[in-house]
Amino acid sequence: MTTTSTERGTKWLMQAGLRPTRQRLALAELLVGDGQDRHVTAEMLFSSAKEKGHKVSLATVYNTLRAFCDVGLMQEVTVDGSKSYFDTNTHDHPHFFWEDDGKLTDAPSEELQIVGLPDAPNGMRIAKVDVVIRLRRE
């Protein structure tokens, strides 16, 4: 990794108050080191880390992604109720899920209109609306 990617990863962790441990920093560099947003599964990130020679376990990757979500660095997007993607873009926005490729990408927010949400049950409020638009080749 380059000095710039290390600096980006360190800054990203520090802005959330996370101590930049060796493993957190290695994963942060993979996630935000080039300044681009990412949609990754834990398995994808684990594979990338191994390819770069980082010594992390899959359990560590899962725990680190959860920690990143807990402090607001990432958001979890669940697809099919069992597969989670982790997104470095934490702003509210819709996603395309490409079923044939198993890939998650951002969808254009400006084209989405959500109207007529049901009222939340008594004592509850709507915290967030997740939109995943599934795509399949014809």
Automatic annotation (TrEMBL):
Ranges that cross the membrane: none
Pfam family of the protein (one): FUR
Main location: cytoplasm
Keyword Zinc: yes
Alphabetized UniProt keyword annotations: Cytoplasm, DNA-binding, Iron, Metal-binding, Repressor, Transcription, Transcription regulation, Zinc
Example of a GO MF term: DNA-binding transcription factor activity
Top-level division of the source organism's lineage: Bacteria
Database matches in SUPFAM superfamilies: Winged helix' DNA-binding domain (SSF46785)
Keyword Transferase: no
Any Gene Ontology biological process: regulation of secondary metabolite biosynthetic process
Signal peptide: none
Self-association state and partner proteins as the record states: Homodimer.
Protein name in UniProt: Ferric uptake regulation protein
Annotated source species: Donghicola tyrosinivorans
Organism lineage: Bacteria, Pseudomonadati, Pseudomonadota, Alphaproteobacteria, Rhodobacterales
